[in-house]
Amino acid sequence: MDLSTRYMGLTLRNPLVASPSPLSHTLDGVCRLADAGVGALVLYSLFEEELTEEAARNARLAEAGTESFAESLSYFPPAAGDESGPRRYLSLVERAAAAVEIPVIGSLNGVTPGGWTTFAQAIQDAGAAAIELNVYYLPGDASVSGREVEMRHVEILQRVKDAVRVPVAVKLSPHFSSTGDMARQLDSAGADALVLFNRILQPDIDAESLAIVPGAGLSGPADARVPRTWIALLHGRVRASLAASTGVEDPEDVVKYLLAGADVVMTTSSLLRHGPAHAATLLDGLSGWMERKGFSTVGELRGRLAVPPGADPTAYERTGYVSALRAANAATYGPW
Ligand SMILES: Cc1cc2nc3c(=O)[nH]c(=O)nc-3n(C[C@H](O)[C@H](O)[C@H](O)COP(=O)(O)O)c2cc1C
């Protein structure tokens, strides 16, 4: 059984990728994920806020000392013993890349096209095989137009692309007025992969305590339906690799994403719920299913259930939507 896969120009031993989570906060966690068999892993994110704080702190230090080029020093290693987030991150990238055989992908999370984006180069130089860019931007300001939101994504991507030689993936929110167009804009701007999707925080309200309860909780297989639909729609319509992210729990969820057209399938929730060793269960299940169905390579099954190349995706979706509603209505009230 050949599970090997290409993802944004990287060769992976299989299409299962551990997405960013607390499991990759330490070298031990990284090694456990690699030992469990994943094809690649994306480290937890370093945030724009951590980088701008570090840059401001270094600029203050430089001002107090003799250095006059504080700006360019801002991403240099600070004094020994410093435990800043960026320092720790680079150290982890370096140690992880040396310790495991699989590609280690660094993750940056930010929302402004600022100087922090150049830190991608430091992550690359520390040994990351690629960069994943998480633009976690929810425009709470209702005066911000959709076009501005889109341009922000493209500009941040371009800045990071300018800073590095390694491939760059963009992890997207599921909320755009035209997700497909956003995907194509990023594709044209040079995104090497699109990760569909980020899981947006969904705070709840506790009616008893009259308090807002933060958090997103872990996902389940039903949450995979929206990303899977977009993977099926975009497969073969963008040059960038497609990474499916959200809602993987069982091997069948991995299979379904591949059938829809994903190049790789990512999981966080299932690994947090069952531990890193669950990766081996997912992979064994994938191999077992392939054997049962007579597939010997992942390439043979990838995209089998994507929206066909010549089809009009909107009409395709609309037809599916109408028939789904008809079926649901028929089940409840009888045929229309
Ligand atoms: C506890 C926790 C921490 C996470 N940390 C990050 C992070 O640092 N960067 C990031 O891009 N995504 C982060 N995510 C999002 C996951 O990488 C993933 O996109 C999301 O959980 C959806 O995938 P899943 O359904 O497989 O969990 C985190 C998710 C959880 C649950």
Describe this entry's structure for a reader.
The chain is an alpha/beta fold. The protein has 2 domains: 5-305, Aldolase class I (TIM Barrel); 312-336, no CATH class. 44% of the residues lie in helices and 15% in strands. It is built from 13 helices and 12 strands. It has helices spanning 27-36, 48-64, 70-73, 85-99, 119-125, 146-163, 179-188, 225-234, 251-260, 269-274, 278-293, 298-301, 313-333, and strands at 5-7, 10-12, 16-18, 40-47, 104-109, 130-134, 168-172, 193-196, 204-206, 211-213, 241-245, 264-267. It has an 8-stranded parallel beta barrel, surrounded by 9 helices. A two-stranded antiparallel sheet has the order 1-2. Strands 9-10 form a two-stranded antiparallel sheet. Strand 5, helix 5 (119-125) and strand 6 form a beta-alpha-beta unit. Helix 8 (225-234) packs parallel to helix 9 (251-260). The longest helix is centred in the C-terminal third of the chain and has 21 residues, at 313-333. It is globular. The N and C termini lie far apart (47 Å). The protein binds flavin mononucleotide (FMN). Residues 19-22, 44-45, 107, 109, 134, 171, 198-199, 218-219, 245-248, 267-269 line the site of flavin mononucleotide (FMN).
Rough outline: globular
CATH class of the largest domain: Alpha Beta
Distance between the termini: 47 Å
Ligand inventory reads: flavin mononucleotide
Tally of separate domains: 2
The proportion of strand residues reads 15-25%
Mean pLDDT over all positions: 90
Listing every helix as H and every strand as E from the N terminus to the C terminus, the arrangement reads: EEEHEHHHEHEHEHEEEHEHEHHHH
Radius of gyration: 21 Å
CATH fold description of the largest domain: TIM Barrel
Which secondary-structure class do the elements indicate? alpha/beta
Spatially, the strands of the biggest sheet line up as 3-4-5-6-7-8-11-12
Give the strand tally.
Answer: 12
Q: CATH H level of the largest domain: which superfamily?
A: Aldolase class I
| Helical stretch tally | 13
